Amino acid sequence: MSGTFLGMPAFPGNAAAAVRDSQLRFNLHKATRTIRGKRAAVVGELPDWGELRAAGKEIKDHTLRNLDRYLLQLEEAVTRAGGRVHWAADAAEANRIVAELVEATGETKVVKVKSMATQEIGLNEALAERGVTAYETDLAELIVQLGDDWPSHILVPAIHRNRSEIREIFREKMAEWGRAAPEDLTDEPRALAEAARLHLRERFLSSKVAISGANFMIAETGTLVVLESEGNGRMCLTLPETLISVVGIEKLLPRWQDLEVFLQLLPRSSTGERMNPYTSTWTGAAEGQEFHLVLLDNGRTDVLADEVGRQALRCIRCSACLNVCPVYERVGGHAYGSVYPGPIGAILTPQLHGMTRATPASHGRGISELDASLPYASSLCGACFEACPVAIDIPEVLVHLRAKAPHPRSERLAMRAAGWIFDRPVRLARTQRFGGRLRRFVPGRLPGPGAAWTDTRDIPDIPAESFRDWWDRTEGSTR
Amino acid sequence: MRVALFITCVNDTLFPGTGRAVVRLLRRLGCEVDFPREQTCCGQMHVNTGYPEEGTRLARRFVDVFAGYDAVVAPSGSCAAMVREQYPRLARAAAAASERETAFEREVAEVAPKVHDLSEFLVDVLGVTDVGAYFPHRVTYHPTCHSLRGLHLGDRPARLLREVRGLELVPLPGAEECCGFGGTFAVKNPAVSAAMCADKVHNVMATGAEVLCAADNSCLMHIGGTLGRQRSGVGVMHLAEILAATEQDAPFPAGEATGGRAGGAR
């Protein structure tokens, strides 16, 4: 993944700071609950949602099991339609391919369709190093780019910003990147959107190269599909002379017909809409246009090798799991230190980076402290699994990854001690009696690691007699 | 019917009153209740914190101890869900690692479906919703995550509570949202856990209830501990304790303080 978030401290520290940010808490509370309500309403009205969800899961699983075959089929179809297919094993290779393609056009400016894959590989930063400026054209990505900020949500990258903050960003930063915001800009959504429209329109009309991702790729036809709400993506896909699409290899679907399922699942799960506003599809190179498809692995085949963890590759980036997550709602996306935040990020990011071994993405250092903490960034409440349109059992994968994560020594010792006590009922009974004798001496505020509990909560009274001792004494016959 | 009580380590150690209430209630309903002395812990803490080896060892103990009973009743949605949802996974992993492990997989397949949370056992197995309880208090119910999304208890607890004489059941706003306990999550991510509980406590207070009820004492320890720290005066009680209460056998007789688990000073 990109170097953008490298060196961030572990999740608990990031989260502790985030929960104290009143503005962030207010913005997130409002936004997540609004989307949550919309999604629940449009999902609830479909009598066959469960079947659609099962179909989505099956199609994705089938594709992943036969990924090698379908990828070759896709390559052939895209090539036949006049496109060129490039294979990128990791972020560095993908960035190099894209940079060279841009350089070959002689351009130093490119427009971008909102894309998670290009953020994952840090494409904008890599292009900047080679003198190419990438302009984000999705409204929310524009806000993030102008604000020199990081995205904090898969679908709504600027969810942590409210409209008065956006107005300030536009007024201060738009002129540096192109057409300035009007002097009398208000924080009315219509005014903000109009300022962005005018700013971006100039960009669309003057750009000769566009870079996109894709929501889906169809193996049988070689068609790529982008779903968006603003029409900016369609401008990028159609106006420039050269189009370069960077797509993760798991975005594949075997047949055109499979879109039927996903075009129902995705909009209802992501924006809470019945139908997606702008759905663009293209097959190979359109007339007069050059088209390149960069197929990105970047850790995906390693994820595929993990029997439990591979279900994360079913993800269609709808972000329903973020919107329903009680942890995400309170800390926002930045705390996860990845372009993939929330529950799906907590299982995807550490897997893409490699849970147990040193990978190029982890710069040979093995798993980072942040990545190791991500599988624990959940109370395992299960709301994400329930909301996931392709039935990724996120709690199952979290628990699976926790077993692979490195554990602190003190925790290992405590867990071993607990295991030893639970291994024999007599040991448990002795421990309980010992605790019962100390009950009067337990302070209300515990020192050391116990403070993590008693900082905000009382501890329960330790009973004088455990249940098993009561049973032994009475055979359960009295109170 | 020969029923084994799976008390769970948390109840055994910290909340024996809940276990006593289950015994009283089930005997009142005509069950023969046994407490297999060899039981300890289901292994949930180990598995969910990333120690599946220790967890699997405890799972083996569990299926050995509880084999041969008609039903196993646990006053904990979370621990019952652990056995029913996660034991088959542990057994599959063990079987994948060694061919001799098919016996464990078989035992899990036999024992796990017989493990019920208390309200499932009452409503589905015994077929009762009126258990003859009396509890003249205003109560709100928090459906814990594992009982809601793991076991799919649905409205079973509410149906049981509605039949309790004198009890006024008030709906809890945002009931289906996690309280932030999450086992070791509560201490590994204490800030987020507390932030989640702040909202839960706010919603509990908004109901005006005297008592917050749930099917898991671990979640109640977290919410109750926060209610207590704030001196809110709202008590917490396990569902079993309310269902066991009768006029003759009140959990806190008139004139007596509701005790250490209510939101008072320690």
Automatic annotation (TrEMBL), chain A:
Residue ranges annotated as coiled coil are none
Q: Where is the 4Fe-4S ferredoxin-type domain?
A: 312-392
Q: Name one Pfam family in it.
A: LUD_dom
Q: What superkingdom heads the lineage? A: Bacteria
Entry keyword set: 4Fe-4S, Electron transport, Iron, Iron-sulfur, Metal-binding, Repeat, Transport
Q: Which InterPro entries match?
A: 4Fe4S_Fe-S-bd, 4Fe4S_Fe_S_CS, FTHF_cligase-like_sf, Helical_ferredxn, LUD_dom, LutB/LldF, LutB_C, NagB/RpiA_transferase-like
Q: Which residues form the LUD domain?
A: 73-288
Q: Which SUPFAM superfamilies match?
A: 4Fe-4S ferredoxins, NagB/RpiA/CoA transferase-like
> What is the name listed in the Swiss-Prot or TrEMBL entry for this protein?
Iron-sulfur cluster-binding protein
- What organism does the record attribute this protein to? Planobispora siamensis
From TrEMBL, chain B:
Molecular function terms in GO for this entry? Answer: oxidoreductase activity
Q: Cysteine-rich domain: from which residue to which, for each copy?
A: 3-83, 139-223
Q: Name one GO cellular component term.
A: cytosol
List where the protein spans the membrane. Answer: none
Q: Which domain of life is it from?
A: Bacteria
Which InterPro entries does the UniProt record give?
Answer: Cys_rich_dom
Entry protein name? Fe-S oxidoreductase
